[in-house]
Design brief:
Blueprint: H1 14-17, H2 25-89, H3 94-114
Helix pairs in contact: 2-3
Keywords: Membrane, Transmembrane, Transmembrane helix
Transmembrane segments: 58-79, 91-114
Length: 115
């Protein structure tokens, strides 16, 4: 058996560690500022995409709110019309039935405002 190592770790001479070309401060600063500029552009693009997504979500919420409000108003008008028809079928005068529906609307609005 051969117990001898095939690769030995020898220290690297200092001449191999030093760069052969000297790096100037201006080229180093240019590289750093270039990287910072790229980083800033990426962050601004990410911010733009986040704002775009937030606006899209806000528009969706506003549309859903408007549709819900429209449905609620439609429901209330249908309820008022059905109540008016029922009062007229019971033999009440039209002016009295409209007055009762108006008072009911006023009470409902007052209840919402107080709440």
């Amino acid at each position: 058996m051969n117990t001898e190592r095939t690769t030995e770790s020898a220290p690297i001479p200092d001449a191999e560690l030093t760069p052969t070309e000297s790096v100037s401060i201006t080229s180093l600063a240019t590289s750093v500022f270039g990287l910072l500029g790229e980083q800033l552009q990426e962050r601004l693009q990410l911010f733009r995409l986040e704002v775009q997504q937030a606006i899209s979500s806000l528009i969706g919420m506003l549309v859903c709110g408007l549709v819900g409000a429209f449905l609620l108003v439609s429901l209330w008008l249908m309820l008022a019309a059905a109540s008016l028809c029922w009062l007229l079928e019971q033999g009440m005068a039209t002016s009295s039935a409209l007055f009762i529906i108006s008072v009911g609307n006023g009470l409902a609005i007052g209840g919402v405002m107080i709440r």
